[in-house]
Amino acid sequence: MKRAAPTARLSSSTGRTGDHQKEKIMRDDDKIRILFLAANPTNVKFQPRLDREVKEIRRKIQASGYGNRFQLIPEWAVTSDDLQAALLEHKPHILHFSGHGSKKAGIILEDAQGKCFFLDKNAFADVLRVLKDNIRIVVLNACYSTDQASYLTDIIDFTIGMGKAIGDDAARTFAAHFYQALAWGRSIEDAFKLGQGQIDLSRIPASGCPQLLVRHGVDRTKPLLVKLESGSGKSQKRAQRPGERPGASTPATKNEGKVQVKDATIRDINLNVGSGTMTKP
Questions:
Q1: How confident is the model at residue 238, as a pLDDT?
Q2: Total domains present in the chain
Q3: Distance (Å, whole) CA 128 – CA 10
Q4: Higher confidence at residue 111 or residue 271?
Q5: Is residue 268 part of a domain?
């Protein structure tokens, strides 16, 4: 049976289709915050199911090994006025935009009436230059967003954009499997490849559409989550036991030197953010 062509997140005229050190202050919950910005203007013919994208991302994260270390924060019907407020309030580690994009004008937000508002590429970059704080990744899950992503490569470590029009199924599939891989402790580059690979495995005709841009000098192979070999990451000198010769070695206890992953907390996982890591004392 011939496979029906996916509906693209497009309308007839638009498509979905001294650098200061990053802040190291964590909130009480110490989770990786994903700020999901959704915009779906009413005057665009096709309305993508952005609620389904959030649902799929949340489901994949919750079923993953380190899913409890992630917090997904959706903001709906985002306007240009909402953008700064959301960044200031939530201080995300990952900024994810989902909605429509235009080949010429870029990302589309909503105005006060719920109509299209084109997000200026330079203005968006200038805002992130000031409010990037913890942001390590920006995902622009919208059509033709790679050009807008390129404006962020000297600001953000990892930026993902779409090189052409992308259908709703492809966009949702990529996002869900990208975050699934991150929540299993894979590197950002691996997560990107796995998200892209799932598009191909699902036989969705959007191969090569997602594109990863990496800031110069950033290690693309380093996991977002890093397990420490011990609680503090440093070896501790064991006290000499009564009757024991100085320097004598004894057998290790059953769990000595092992990372306890079952009930993982921030004490045995670091967040790679910017040039350093963030840990809870």
A1: 45
A2: 1
A3: 26
A4: 111
A5: no
Inter-helix orientation angle 80-90/121-131, to 10°? 20
Q: Which residue has the higher pLDDT, 24 or 106?
A: 106
Q: How far apart are the first and last CA of the chain?
A: 58
Residue ranges making up the domain that contains 205: 32-214
How far apart, in whole angstroms, are the C-alpha atoms of residue 152 and residue 267?
A: 32
Question: Burial of 30 by CB count in 10 Å (0-12 exposed, 13-18 middle, 19+ buried)?
Answer: middle
The answer to whether residue 144 sits within a structural domain is yes
Asked whether residue 4 is assigned to any structural domain, the reply reads no
pTM of this prediction? Answer: 0.73
* Closest C-alpha to 137, from 84, 82, 70, 68: 70
Beta bridge partners of 73: 35
Q: Quote the pLDDT of residue 27.
A: 43
| 167 DSSP β-pair partners | 8
Burial 209-218 (b: 16+ CB within 10 A, else e): bbbbbbeeee
Residue 145 CA to residue 9 CA, distance in Å, equals: 12
232 in a structural domain: no
Residues, the chain, total? 281
CATH number, domain of 69, equals 3.40.50.1460
Per-residue pLDDT tens over the stretch 217-271: 999 988 888 643 333 333 344 445 555 555 444 444 444 433 333 333 222 334 4
Question: What ranges in 15-138 are assigned the alpha helix state H?
Answer: 50-62, 80-90, 121-131
- Residue-wise pLDDT for 160-206, tens only, equals 999 999 999 999 999 999 999 999 999 999 999 999 999 999 999 99
